[in-house]
Amino acid sequence: MAAEEQRSSPRINITLPAHFLSNRVGGDLALASTINISAGGISLSCTEKLNAGQEIELQTILPTTGEKLKLYSKIIWVRELEASIPRIQEYRAGLKILDSAGKDELKFTQFYTHQLNRGFRI
């Protein structure tokens, strides 16, 4: 079954700043941004290589309130993109939000629903 067929809610194109703990030695924060979101998942752009099955704490800020959210997520898929800047590799990843009943996850879902009701969808 293709990824498109597995989606249970529409996607919304929106770029939100995000970061997560890096896999590299020292565990620096890796910068990222969303490409699109749904009620249960996020498509992410980053320069840090992620692995399918890996669990991360993705942190982002809601543009409507300025609230910082921590979203516990599992990496479902990763695609390596052709580098647009020499020596900087870019990746796309699909994340599933794990704890849909958590406080921050509920705020994220409310933000998503508000955006969806305003007609922002792909």
Radius of gyration: 14 Å
The total of beta strands comes to 7
The CATH superfamily is identified as: predicted glycosyltransferase like domains
Which shape, going by the Cα principal axes?
A: globular
* Poorly predicted spans: 1-5
Strand order of the largest sheet: 2-3-4-7-6-5
SSE string, helix = H, strand = E? HEEEEEEEH
What is the first-to-last residue Cα distance? Answer: 20 Å
Strand content: over 45%
Main beta-sheet strand count, sense and barrel state: 6 strands, antiparallel, barrel
The overall pLDDT average reads 87
Question: Can you walk me through this structure?
Answer:
- By secondary structure, the protein is an alpha+beta fold.
- It has a single domain, classed as predicted glycosyltransferase like domains (Thrombin, subunit H), CATH 2.40.10.
- The protein is built from two helices and seven strands.
- A six-stranded antiparallel barrel has the order 2-3-4-7-6-5.
- The protein is globular and about 40 Å long.
